[in-house]
Amino acid sequence: MAASETVLRVPLGPLSPSCYLASFFANSTPSLSFKPASRKRRGLRCTSSYESGNSFHSPNSGLKGKQLQSSTRCKCQRNDVEESIRSTLLPSDGLSSELKRDLDEMPLPVNGSLSSNGNAQSGGPKSIEDEAWDLLRQSIVYYCGSPIGTIAANDPNSTSVLNYDQVFIRDFIPSGIAFLLKGEYDIVRNFILYTLQLQSWEKTMDCHSPGQGLMPASFKVKTVPLDGDDSMTEEVLDPDFGEAAIGRVAPVDSGLWWIILLRAYGKCTGDLTVQERVDVQTGIKMILKLCLADGFDMFPTLLVTDGSCMIDRRMGIHGHPLEIQALFYSALVCAREMLTPEDGSADLIRALNNRLVALSFHIREYYWLDLKKINEIYRYQTEEYSYDAVNKFNIYPDQIPSWLVDFMPNRGGYLIGNLQPAHMDFRFFSLGNLWSIVSSLATNDQSHAILDFVEAKWAELVADMPFKICYPAMEGEEWRIITGSDPKNTPWSYHNGGAWPTLLWQLTVASIKMGRPEIAEKAVELAERRIAIDKWPEYYDTKRARFIGKQARLYQTWSIAGYLVAKLLLANPSAAKFLISEEDSDLTNAFSCMISANPRRTRGRKKAQQPFIV
Ligand code: GLC
């Protein structure tokens, strides 16, 4: 839970038998106004009113000075509110046993025997998809009666909830996409606009404030007594920017995912008014400014600390991890599409374009690994000084791990996990590779090669349950030093080589993009054999993903949503275009100019560097 109580609040009115805000919010986005909260909690207070418009988010205009606007109060008795929230979050006993009975009765699915359109087969047991939809809906979190997100896990038997009762930004992405594909747009719109409110929040950890554009890792809706009147309650949105998270990790990926979802919302609904709002445009720019700020770094990749993405614990991914680079690239491409041209943003757009070119070149050239490249590294000269060095990062060939030599198939390749001076992280990280395909960070050939690699290494990367978060696991001394002896990240568990069903959706988008949906179909079919029976675990353990993860939550929302998105997209592959970015021809031209000027390709040949213009 958040250490500093920075909150977004909605007062709930005097005693009344029920909360009746839902219908009020159904057709209008509440406009929020703010005033500093009480001495007990720092933060802003908001009320809901019938006004709509652009006062939603105005980071540079002194939000804290704004006063409460006229309000329509939610008349809830404290117990009613708590009860109504609880009932939206926890499956009733009846449902659990019903689910259990359904599962017990359910035959092992045979390919094609289950509905792929989300509808129950009449008379028969509930389909896996229907069950998934029920569970996804039960995970919805409401704020002032409006759906605004889904909690991370809804495991009724879990003894320690930690922060799994919160709405995680990254976890909501597959939920949001499932709702978009189903034509249920309100929850996504609300999520986008409410999380935008949290972005401009004042946040500190031990007196230090992170950058202004930061999006929270997660948030929670709390019902608290109204200041000065204990007979009344109010709802508050309580964000966690990492200041309360285990390890105090920075949620670098949150803002990037937010931009990606915003673009998907516009593409899917055709409603561009959200992305065109002044406050939303400001939000995009704040994220970009934070990411594009000058620093000490030599590389165009984003420099981050360990645990700043889906892998949110120490796993040796500090520096320039692929996952962040793929999301960064994707967010830049999406933002470029959405930014409305205006005089003030010319510099930002120029910086964005330059970064896109440099980033794609850097990743495609230096992160790419296949048999040929391993052989090149194996024969690297080291300690090369000067501009035409081939081994630019001074990689010592002894770094090539023994597992890799036999592991790399003749056909196929992948983008490595990280690159730093004298260090290549040769591990395969799934999300980064899959999203490099989806966003066209990888070239067309590389994208096919990544899928070739996945097919060739199916037994290792998928085995009994899709999909390993990374490969291979760290063991022994390496595990001890790099994870800090983390008992949750033991070899082939959790982030250290565990299998995460949520990754199904990214695999599906990537394989549809490359015209190879059969890869995703195979993975979905495999998942369907166990996932519902196993109660939708967060992750699986062991080399072959045979066990439900040691500390895995059950009814993990993004496992459920990831499965649903995969099914919906396989049933309607053209919908994947809401998520895909095709390669831009300006970028391709710039990229080929840079490629031909690279010493790795031209050493020995005398060729003048060609200028390029974006
Ligand atoms: C774990 C995962 C993280 C996820 C969170 C909530 O911490 O590592 O990626 O967002 O759980 O599900």
UniProtKB/TrEMBL annotation:
**What molecular function terms (GO) are annotated for this protein?**
endo-alpha-N-acetylgalactosaminidase activity; sucrose alpha-glucosidase activity
Return the Polar residues bias intervals: 112-124
Pfam families assigned? Glyco_hydro_100 (PF12899)
Q: Which residue ranges does the record annotate as region Disordered?
A: 50-71, 107-127
Q: What Gene3D superfamilies does the entry give?
A: 1.50.10.10
Q: What does this protein do?
A: Invertase that cleaves sucrose into glucose and fructose.
The protein's name in its UniProt record: Alkaline/neutral invertase
Which lineage ranks, top first, belong to the organism behind this chain?
A: Eukaryota, Viridiplantae, Streptophyta, Embryophyta, Tracheophyta
